[in-house]
Specification:
Blueprint lengths: L2 E7 L16 H9 L1 E3 L2 E2 L5 H10 L3 H4 L18 H6 L4 E6 L14 E3 L9 H16 L7 E6 L29 H30 L6 E7 L14 H4 E2 L1 E4 L8 E3 L3 E2 L3 H9 L13 H4 L10 E7 L3 E8 L3 E6 L15 H8 L10 E5 L17 H17 L35
Parallel strand pairs: 1-6, 1-7, 2-10, 3-11, 4-5, 4-6
Antiparallel strand pairs: 2-9, 3-8, 7-9, 12-13, 13-14, 14-15
Helix pairs in contact: 5-6
Amino acid sequence: MMNVLYLHTHDTGRFIQPYDPAMPTPNLMKLAKDGTLFRNAHCCGPTCSPSRAALLTGEPPHMNGMYGLAHRGFELNDYSKHLANYLKQFGYETVLCGLQHECKTAYGIGYDKVYVNPRDEREDLTSWDLSNGDAAIRYIREKHEKPFFLSYGLIHTHRPYQELDTDVLPDYLKVPHCLPDHSKIRTDFARFVTSVKRADMCIGRVLDALEQEGLADDTVIIYTTDHGIAFPFMKCNLYDTGIGVSLIIKYKTNPSKGRVCDSLVSHVDIYPTLCELLNIPKPRWLTGTSLMPLLNNEVEEVNEAIYSEINYHAAAEPQRCVRTKRYKYIKRYGEWEGYVPSNIDGGDSKSYILSGGLLEHKPEREMLFDLILDSAEGNNVIDDLGYREIAEYMRQKLKSHMVQTNDFLLENQLPHPEGIKVNRTECMEPDSKNPEDYE
């Protein structure tokens, strides 16, 4: 049986070299050339715990119970559905090295072995990732009597960005298209670029160890991230800048080695894909579709549409979206009509956008984008008569999915589990020290 190496970074979106040549990630570029790069992959929720929980259970957040952040009290309904626990039933040894975001404590998931550097990762992101990577390397070099599922999770590229390499020149960087080209944002983005360099270096060391131990040909390697980068209009947004993710899959017998795939895929498709690759039965609860027909070059698409959602990040901000190859429909729920500032991660980019008067505006409650004519999602055509039939089709498409998955927002009801920590919608910063900023 093949091993599985699950590599995941934090808040990276598609800002790695295989998607953007300006990003300094040669190890991930090599992995992409040796595997299959998915250029149209999306998460099920553009916040940390919901996204990862969906990938690792095969269910969207409103089904698996991870409505918000694990360290703020949210939990999976059933940890036996977690991929690591499911694989244990088929003889796998499961190992976690580094970051996870599916449980308040890494030891609560059920991995056979856990190594997480006990220091606060925010003290030194690189040292923390290197230490956890060293543990992954030590494990790879052990003698293995069972196939393994090894999860190596990095804190990079999460904020706060602590370093700025001298060869990363802010004034010669192109900032993401959804942000203004200003010196503060260029410098902020340069620190992100430094962070992604660090992530790539850490990943490269683990991949090298796998090669050196002769295990690469016996291992399925998956690299992805949870959602878009931690800048305004990206993370915790249902635009493609929020839900679009990197995805690379590599294994020895892959017919699509070195190929780029433009097909529409979702994080929930990874679980059934692994089941098929590892020749184990797919559990009944999975909602995704195996990507094997794409990897085997048998079909052009496996999904007509993908779905993503927001319930809570720092604060409640319930939203749903459906995306096809051409159209994106987003609907906002709840009574709050403005932007939710604590759901924008802090930093110079946030400060600059807020200084421009963001909170004086209201996001639209319903949005429809034509992704061929408006790939930047800047022109909402929901009220355009020429798109009336498309708008109704997308509304019904989303509603049908919500009915099928028993989504609580059909009744405009957002669960509020006991013991969770949630900011008030008007709170400015997620880590506010003022008790009045919390519900």
